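Letters spell out the chain; the tokens describe the backbone. To illustrate:

===
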Amino acid sequence: MSDRTNGPTGPVLPEKPRRRGGLYALIAVAAVAVIVAGALVIPRLFTSSDDTAGGERTTVRLGTTDAAQGHWPVLEEILSEEGIDLEVVPFDSYETPNPALADGSIDLNAFQHVDYLSDHNNATGDGLAVVGPTIIVPLPIYSEQYSDVADIPEGGRVAIPQDATNQARALKVLESAGLLELNDATTPTPADVVTSRVQVEPVDASLTAPALQDPSIAAAIVNNTFATDAGIIDKAIYSVDPSDANSWPYINIIASRAGEEDDPVFQKVWEAYHDPRVTEIVVAESSGTARIVEEQPAQVREWLAEIEDEKDAGA
């Protein structure tokens, strides 16, 4: 999936509207009629997982916002050998794949990270579930002046994206890098910085890479696509490890309806995504920045439940 907030492989999400009565996003859910190739998306075509074992073919409709990416045909081919016909359904708006999943128009979706799904579930009560994790695209720190975050001087100015989702994530990256300390806010803002040895400068995400040319800017956190456009994608001086606690809300996932996450056919789709023939393309499409997430579904489901509880408590 490609846009201007995360990069070409991960579900890159728009700034979330504010949730009613709280600090978190409210994802507006309406009756969704999704038009694909000029035809109305019909109710889900997923058939019983027993069909595959009996030699019959099973169709699974998976919605995504990055349907043009090259790994999907490879995944389709791998699953076809298992008797599963994967139909990749394109969406051009981040607001529609979750409602389409909830109403049965599709069987799975793969466009979002854990944090985004938690907002949707808390706002709608849909209870959409994690089939399994896919990738994470780190949000790195770049600098034209320093080769290590330890060299950034006291009071150095660091540009970060100002949209709510990426700003919170960028602050957590700076915390993981040891440049500041945050309180326990689930979605932090600069007001949640407890101590800091740098001066945080929120700017439009499109201006983070150009800010590096300003000699008064010590470093910047730049989204994957902007870093690629600026030719600095391989020049990060710091990147959070996916196992870091500040990273797990941004792990991308394949999602299903509640109670269907362990369906054997859906699990085969997730397992096939991790086939090296697929993951090699995924990583290449991200200019080498995407990291394949190896955690088991049970762990990621626990993380989803934790963040939903935290957001409910803070609402």
Notes: The longest helix spans residues 297-314. The chain is about 30% helix and 20% strand. The radius of gyration is 20 Å.
